[in-house]
Amino acid sequence: MISAAFGLGMAELAAGILPDGSSPVVAAGEFVIRNAPGGAERWAIRTFGTNDKPFLVVSTIVIVLALGAAAGLLMRTRPLAASAIVVVAVGFGVLTSMRHQDATILDAVPAIVGGLAAVLILRLLLRLDAAAGPAGPLSPDASGRRTVLVAGGAALVAAPFAGLLGRRLQDRVDAAASRAKVSLPAPAQPLPALPAGTDLHLAGLSPFTTPNADFYRIDTALLIPQVDAQSWSMRIFGRVDHELTFTFEELLARPLVEADITLACVSNEVGGSLVGNARWLGVPLRDLLTEAGVHPDADQVVGRAVDGFTVGFPVSAALDGRQALVAVGMNGEPLPLRHGFPVRLVVPGLYGYVSATKWLSEIELSRFADFDPYWIRLGWAQPAPIKVQSRIDTPRGRVAAGPVNVAGVAWAQERGVRAVEVRVDGGPWHPADLADAVGTDTWRQWVYRWDATAGRHVLEVRATAGDGEVQTGQTSPPFPSGATGWHSRQVSVG
After folding, report:
1. What confidence tens digit (pLDDT) does each residue in 91-128 have?
2. Using CA atoms, how far apart are residues 13 and 170, in angstroms rounded to an integer?
3. Rounded to whole angstroms, how far apart are CA atoms 430 and 421?
4. Fewer CB atoms near the end CB (10 Å): N or C, the chain?
């Protein structure tokens, strides 16, 4: 295990020193993300939520350490089997490091360096161990045992330091520094301040505008891409009359607009937290596509991230008048790194897995018949309109008898929320009071004043969209097109 840990540290250090080195841990994790069956991905999000990526990194490291332990145990009695474990582990690291389209031979070097380092330190420790003789109070060579412990301890301490240094060197682009240099221009079409009645300001109720730090993050990037805004560019190509390329400065020089838009993840369970609302700043996507000249036979907009992730949504969603944005700002500041700095796509009314490309690098006009983006290849539905949903934020757990505010949020992008109803213990539905509406693309707060009586009760909520569609009570899981059902909470009153 010590040898495997040392090998991982040296591999990360090599990846940081080499100009095009690839971290074997990251490469292996991205391979799992790209090739795991849809069921595994859904289980990871359901079980770990936004902590799915740290879990994957830790799991990868634990597997490598376990393989190292197995190789060490076999080295004395079955050296060929031990060697095979090392060769397979290194070979997997090499293959996964070479899978991206711009890979060079240098991408394979860190995995090889890590394997060689692990083998060398393992052979050294075994040689020192053999020379020291048996362990115990009657050991003939206590100094030899101390040498083994000192050498192993030194390797174990060196491993994380080497790994952290390598990780620091790999982040050659200081995206945080690049972001700090960005000064967003004022929008050409600024939105007015939010009406006072937009936010009910109730304890336990989600605020109308989700703070950037609290906004959910679900994506396939094992590590947040580090993008320098000054060297970033975006290409629009494919089935267009004119291929266009924009720098970040050129985007900022165009007329920018603001839009309040609620985003939701298709993996969100009924009543889940994978939904948030923000005020976005960006260039209307339809302006850029109109300038490029979309061919009549193009029916899909494909967004590509700098790490190769792809989404795809109908061309109509970019041109039908909704406020689809090539966004550069979020809640009055440049996009946070974890939310796509420097540029991302925001498309109202569609789940993020088909529309919300972070770290945007390319927009291709294509056809659904010609290309399936990442999540569609895993079996998720296309198209992907966001369903009518509502959630109870408060109360939770135990409350005192008497007047209680039952409150939450409801959303039905592109249509708005017309009504919200609450019922207690399966009884009749009662209308809730709605906060002021800002537009049809945002969620809406609601509150129902409940005269709570002693005992255990079940609260349920349902919403009605602006077009009259009532949220269905039929329960279905997120896969393949978004969860349905009424959110409920059990509360104790007394």
Report:
1. 888 888 877 666 777 888 888 888 888 888 888 887 88
2. 9
3. 5
4. C
Backbone angles phi, psi at 357, to 5 degrees: -70, 120
Model confidence pLDDT, tens digit, residues 127-161: 887 777 665 554 555 676 788 788 888 888 888 88
Helix H or strand E encompassing 118: helix 109-132
Q: Tell me how far apart the alpha carbons of residues 427 and 32 are, in angstroms, rounded to a whole number.
A: 47
Q: How many CB atoms neighbour CB 198 within 10 A?
A: 19
Structure tokens at 487: 């959110």
Query: DSSP letters of 232-262?
Result: -EEEEEESBSS-EEEEHHHHHTSPPEEEEEE
- What is the distance between the alpha carbons of residues 405 and 202, in angstroms, rounded to a whole number? 8
Walk across the sheet containing 233-238 and list its strands. 244-247, 233-238, 360-366, 300-305, 310-314
Q: How many angstroms separate the CA atoms of 469 and 109, rounded?
A: 57
Maximum alpha-carbon separation in the chain: 86
Q: Does pTM top 0.85 for this prediction?
A: no
Q: Are 111 and 86 in contact (CB under 8 A)?
A: no
Nearest 5°: the CA angle 268, 338, 300 is: 65
